[in-house]
Amino acid sequence: MEALTARELTLGYGETNIIEDLTITIPKGEITVFIGGNGCGKSTLLRSMARLLKPKEGGIVLHGEDIAKIPTKEVAKKLAILPQSPISPEGLTVFDLVKQGRHPYKSMFKGWSDEDERAVFGALEATNMFELKDRYVDSLSGGQRQRAWIAMTLAQETDTILLDEPTTYLDMTHQIEILDLLFDLNEKDNRTIVMVLHDLNLACRYAHHIVAIKDKKVYAQGKPEEIVDCDMVSDVFQMKCDITYDPMFGTPMCIPHGKGRCLIKNAISESRSKVKTI
């Protein structure tokens, strides 16, 4: 069953098209990752799926309904998006930020409720941010700040979460921390997660479904082990590589060619010949 579907989608800014006649289906209850070179349209596609960018042609279907015909607050109860590098107002606490996730449920006749409080505190607990709820967002580390923003999206209590490069500017420890959190949300709550990632190896480790974008269209989509190979990396990223298996997870692992210090120069040809290519 699909959570989101893009049908014959054309997207762009002014007269420039970024995506043309693209059709994809996002599986419900799985982690989907968009990959591709810089400027290929990954973020543009994600924004369109959240109804932040109106298509020039085609449309988006959310849970079987045309998203353009669903009231804005109803969309926000079904789908949450975390843009790349969001910025919060100065002086905002973590608790106040996470409370913003309850905005779709507010009305002129409905104030702060027990349900709102449960959702906010639950989101803080799920992201391990409860102890930091009274801290100012701009005083947090990069990983803590990203967890606070993810907590805000969780407070929306949507089945589907879209994230644009959630690990950008984070060190290795915080990248894994954020991706593990998203993985747990998928595993425990069956949330549909859709995100843009630049690290192909991490995309292969965490994604059930990968969509590779090139030349304004879908180049390939499917399970990482089915579509990630040397030809795909060469075509999509214009980079030569070897593909082997991650020794811990068994997922495809890309070893890029290029220059650098080689401690095994005399054995490099032999070692490449032993790499199991997918």
TrEMBL record:
Keywords: ATP-binding, Cell membrane, Ion transport, Iron, Iron transport, Membrane, Nucleotide-binding, Transport. It comes from the Bacteria. One of its GO terms (biological process) is iron ion transport. The keyword Lipid biosynthesis does not apply. It is a peripheral membrane protein. Residues 4-240 form the ABC transporter domain. Pfam families: ABC_tran. It is found in: Cell membrane. This is ABC transporter ATP-binding protein.
